[in-house]
Amino acid sequence: MRILIALAAALMVAGTTTAQAAAPTALAAPNINVANVRAHLNQFQSIATANGGNRAHGRPGYLASVNWVKSKLDAAGYRTAVQSFSYGGATGYNLTAEWPVGDANNVVMVGGHLDSVTAGPGINDNGTGSASILEVALQVAATNFQPTKRIRFGWWGAEERGLIGSTYYVNQLPSADRSKIKAYLNFDMTGSPNPGYFVYSASGQPSGSAALQQRLQAGFTSFGVQTELTSVGGRSDHAAFARAGIPIGGTFTGAEGIKTSAQAQKWGGTAGQAYDRCYHRSCDTTSNVNATALDRNADVIAYALWATAV
Ligand code: DPN
Ligand code: ZN
Questions:
Q1: Is 228 exposed, middle or buried (0-12, 13-18, 19+ CB in 10 A)?
Q2: E-assigned strand segments in 101-217
Q3: How far apart are the C-alpha atoms of 273 and 201, rounded to whole Å?
Q4: Would the CB of 158 count as within 6 Å of ligand 1?
Q5: Within a domain: residue 1?
Q6: Per-residue pLDDT reduced to its tens digit, 249-308
Q7: Which of 160, 199, 236 to mutate to test ligand 1, by most ligand atoms within 8 A of the CB atom?
Q8: Which residue owns the Cα nearest ligand 1 atom 12?
């Protein structure tokens, strides 16, 4: 799905009284190829399989995930940084990647957690968000996107231990740097096998952004998908950003909650069953992903990022 945003700008001609309209610029957010996102998920699955079956904080599969994502971003021209922190007797890592274009005082961040629980490989939770923002980042580079704002991505460690990595990142940022972040978009579980199409409610938490909520809703609406608002509260990595007063938004396809019959009617899938029956279990493998939900959310991520960073 290709989404066009028409930008009309007034052109002032210096030294004259004439103001004329510039030709509208068509800004296209790229269609994200879900096959590429699934290839990244296969990589996360292989990493887990080679490292005792998980990608959890303090386990070798986590650092292997960081190193693999970092290598893709480095090759694409990102400025990457690995931040380490200590939690529960183990070293954890956050990976950030900045696209070196646009106003460094005006930062749009997109993030999600890269760790799994110890029970399994964490492919829906949260290989999906991690792989989708990786592919969006690679498309920023491939299209040589030249936004006016600065784009920074974050892959957080130890979310499953209590939002540890993202909280550390926000808390250690000097307040001058914190105030440069104008928006934070969070993606945690975007391919649930019995999916819902949820957008974070701006009123559900401190610093929820109505503008970001509406932009994410508009992305789904543009390809005919109905959404519901959800109050995710403090359950994922947006929470630390929200507490710091940074406008936040995000999408979610559901975890242990049960799909209602009204939801099954509008979205398909199975009423009376969890959105993700393998949530935090060993069966959260590459078989535990709905490709349509994954694809739609990846396209919405690109749509919202392009519209926010332009
Ligand atoms: N924080 C998620 C997890 O990693 O278990 C679950 C979740 C994600 C809940 C997003 C609400 C919203
Ligand atoms: Zn998660």
A1: middle
A2: 103-113, 149-156, 181-187, 198-200
A3: 23
A4: no
A5: no
A6: 999 999 999 999 999 999 999 999 999 999 999 999 999 999 999 999 999 999 999 999
A7: 236
A8: 232
- 161 pocket-lining for ligand 1 (C-beta < 6 Å): no
- Give pLDDT tens digits for 140-197: 999 999 999 999 999 999 999 999 999 999 999 999 999 999 999 999 999 999 999 9
Whether 159 is catalytic is yes
Considering the domain boundaries, does residue 26 fall inside one? yes
Structure token digits, residue 64: 């292997």
Residue 2 lies in a domain: no
What pTM did the predictor assign?
0.92
Q: Is residue 179 part of a domain?
A: yes
Provide the domain count of the chain: 1
The domain in which residue 297 lies consists of 7-309
Q: Which atom of ligand 1 is nearest to the CA of 186?
A: 10
Ligand 1 mutation target, pool 235, 280, 284, 288, most atoms within 8 A of CB:
235
Mapping DSSP to helix (H, G, I), strand (E, B) and coil, where does residue 106 land?
Answer: strand
